[in-house]
Amino acid sequence: MKKFLVVAAALFVLFNLISISANAGEGKKIKVVYHFNSDDQKIHKAGLINIQNHIDAVGKENVEIIAVLHGPGLTMLQKGKTEEDNFLRIANLKKQGVKLGVCNVTITRQKLNKDELSVGQDKIKDSDIVPSGVAELAKLQSEGYAYIKP
After folding, report:
1. Residue 123 CA neighbour count, 13 Å, CB half
2. Which of 27, 22, 72, 37 is nearest to 147 (CA)?
3. What pLDDT band is residue 2 in, cutting at 50, 70 and 90?
4. Phi and psi for 68 in degrees, rounded to 5?
5. Is the CB of residue 93 less than 8 Å from the CB of residue 52?
6. Contact 86, 121 (CB under 8 A)
7. Rounded to the nearest 5°, which phi and psi values hold at 63?
8. Crossing angle (nearest 10°) for helices 84-95 and 41-58
């Protein structure tokens, strides 16, 4: 009988450890970076819809998404160079917690006016600008962000 109780207690402890270990990852946000470096409006639209689908699937509280834009990808933020629906999609995604990483190298090299880059009706903020889009992608991947290229 004593052996039975010892084995039962050991199994109880083992199952609790397994349960604790399985639940350790709960509450941890999935980290994802979406990469935009094309001026193709269809790619912009598809990528922005992918981000919304991602949020819908896992819940905005369970995911941290950063959209990094560089090179021709900055056309997403320029009136007259992108579809109006994409402006609205980006604004809606920002309201859900999606962050932007807008490449300062591109802004500088293309002599863009930061005040002409916008998200919906709002201008981009200094906090949306990163020194280099490609450097930001590498940094985020080294921090465990999953990489998605629409």
Report:
1. 6
2. 37
3. low
4. -100, 125
5. yes
6. no
7. -140, 145
8. 30
In the numeric block, the tokens 């350790």 are attached to: 24
Residue 135 token pair = 């450097």
pLDDT band at 120 (very low <50, low <70, confident <90, very high): confident
CA 18 – CA 91 distance, rounded (Å) = 42
Q: What is the pLDDT of residues 50-95, one digit of tens each?
A: 999 999 999 999 999 999 999 999 999 998 888 888 889 999 999 9
* Rounded CA separation 117/106 (Å): 12
**Distance between CA atoms of 141 and 129, rounded to whole angstroms?**
18
Give the residue with greater pLDDT, 144 vs 26. Answer: 144
How many CA within 13 A on the CB side of residue 35? Answer: 16
Q: Is the pTM of this model over 0.85?
A: no
